[in-house]
Amino acid sequence: MRRLSALKEQTEVWRGLERRANEVMEIVDISLQEEDASLQEEVRSEIDKIVAELDRLDFELLLSGEYDGRAALVAIHAGAGGTESQDWAEMLMRMYLRWAERRGYRAEVLDTSPGEEAGIKSVMLEMRGAHAYGYLRSEHGVHRLVRLSPFDADHARHTSFALVEVLPEVEQATEVRISPDDLKVEAFRSSGPGGQHMQKTSSAVRITHIPTGLVARCQSQRSQHQNKEIALKVLQARLLELESSKEAEERDRLKGEHTPAAWGNQIRSYVLHPYKMVKDHRTGLETGNAAAVLDGALDELMEAYLRSQIGKDN
Asked: How many structural domains are present in the chain?
């Protein structure tokens, strides 16, 4: 039913654009007959809007992957470097939350592990909206920050790293089959802020998938049952991603261009000192407005990457 609803919505967008184009053509005839300058200007404005809408729809054709229309789980992990990297991980979390807000997506923090002094060690976000995974898959990889450290008394320049993982939500239980015998479920006390109840009861949950060694945990909810549900959802997404990576690796091997399925390559640098610049190393796209990017203006970077992938996924 979700699939049917999405197809109806897409069809209505194109039908609506068709109606607008027909209406404009009728107005064009009238404006030419009456030589009405103001009417002609109105026609030009409407044509520009239709062209802009067509460009947007043309780009969305790139988001036709198997999982592109799904919700996304975004995991951010601070790299080596202690407080510096943990603060950078929190900056990235804010960046993606602001991006989701700009697009009208629903974003939820599923789980977070706070840093000792500042920032976060890791966080798991859930993003829901049109083509959430399709857009966010462009963010998967290592993100590098260069800046004057606010935690260094000498204000020296520091380089920090954080890993961003993006996983498609598993929509059907049949997509990922997990035997209960393959799971090791552990309960433990939550760490960090959260009130007496969360810290005094063993409500946090860690689930290990024994055959693969994959681990998912959650401690953000008051109920152990809720934490277990979220951890299982994350584990399913990780297993789906693992299976997809194996299939992609096999395709590359058959094509004779095997590439190791290793996430961790540096994909983007954010430089705040001695100059301000954000550069995507995969596309070469650069922007001097680093503040805007860190405030969620990611669409240009995402679209450049997705366009660069045309033909590579087949």
From this structure: 3
**The one-letter amino acid at 147:** R
Dihedral pair phi/psi, residue 138, rounded to 5°:
-70, -10
**Residues 186 and 216 both lie in one domain:** yes
Residues 78 and 167 in one domain: yes
Rg (CA), the chain: 23
Which residues is 206 bridged to in the sheet?
186, 217
Sign of the alpha-carbon torsion through 279, 280, 283, 288? negative
Q: Is residue 313 in a domain?
A: no
Residue 164: closest CA among 227, 247, 89: 89
Q: What is the pLDDT along the chain (314 residues), one digit of tens a residue?
A: 777 887 888 889 889 999 999 998 888 888 777 777 777 788 888 899 999 888 878 877 788 788 898 999 999 999 987 899 999 999 999 999 999 999 999 999 988 888 888 999 999 999 999 899 999 999 999 999 999 988 887 778 889 999 999 999 887 666 787 888 899 999 887 765 544 444 456 788 989 999 999 989 888 777 888 888 888 888 989 888 888 877 666 555 544 544 443 444 689 999 999 999 999 999 999 999 999 999 999 999 999 999 898 766 54
- Same domain, yes or no: 243 and 264: no
Expressed as residue numbers, the domain containing 28 is: 2-60
- In this structure, are residues 74 and 124 in contact, taking their beta carbons and an 8 Å threshold? yes
pTM strictly above 0.85 = no
